[in-house]
Design goal:
This protein is mainly α. The protein has one domain. About 55% of the residues lie in helices and about 5% in strands. It has a three-stranded parallel beta sheet with strand order 1-2-3, covered by helices on one side. Strand 1, helix 1 and strand 2 form a beta-alpha-beta unit.
Length: about 220
């Protein structure tokens, strides 16, 4: 390849967990061209219902990096600032004030600040009422150019949390989900309800049957 043209690489995968010095050395061993990392960590064109807003880390070669962001103007400006803050190890509280983000968003950061290959989810960590209240405050009271771009992600998070804790009616699921996803959720719900019925019968049904048989024998032996 002509040396004036740079190589663009994304790492081992299109969305790479890390970009390491070892990878760069391997590539440089067979070319003298400039290497530019095409970093897709913040891209969401492949997952439009999700958005990653977390700190920039696990990368070493920031000077030769091109960021593929979201395509949303206000969000990308936020992410550029976030990347700069991460690189310079500054406090992130400044970015909230700069972009007029209500402090209540901090209650929901765990859902947006961890990339898909890092996050482990535990239902016990969810305070459903507090988090739904925080989402509602952001949905209905926060008014800014950035809030308009984040609205669908906040609303989607609310629906997902309510689904997780079985707080959504079947009719509501049909209204808010696509036809394929609606079918998946409804089928899963049927299986869970059936499992719960079996569990309740095993837990309480046998006791009821034993008591009934005991009463029957007592009555018939009198």
């Amino acid at each position: 390849m002509i040396e004036i043209f740079p190589y663009f690489i994304a790492g081992k995968k299109i969305v790479s967990k890390t970009i390491s010095l070892k990878e760069l050395k391997i590539i440089k061993s067979f070319t003298k061209n400039k290497i530019i990392f095409w970093d897709n960590i913040y891209a969401n064109d492949y997952c439009p219902r999700k958005i990653f807003l977390g700190s920039y880390h696990n990368r070493f070669n920031v000077d030769n990096t091109m960021f593929n962001l979201t395509g949303m103007v206000e969000t990308d400006l936020y992410l550029i600032n976030k990347i700069c803050i991460s690189i310079k190890s500054k406090k992130e509280d400044e970015i909230f004030e700069k972009f007029d983000i209500p402090i209540v968003f901090k209650k929901l950061e765990k859902y947006f600040n961890t990339s898909y290959f890092e996050y482990t989810f535990d239902n016990n960590e969810v305070n459903l009422k507090n988090e739904i209240d925080a989402i509602d405050e952001l949905l209905w009271r926060w008014k800014s150019p950035l809030s308009l771009e984040w609205y669908p992600y906040l609303l989607g998070l609310k629906q997902d949390l309510l689904l997780l804790f079985n707080k959504v009616s079947s009719n509501r699921i049909r209204k808010t989900q696509t036809l394929p996803l609606n079918k998946v959720i409804q089928n899963l719900r049927k299986k869970i309800n059936e499992q719960n019925r079996i569990y309740r019968f095993r837990k309480y049904g046998y006791t009821y049957v034993r008591k009934s048989l005991k009463i029957w024998f007592q009555c018939n032996w009198i």
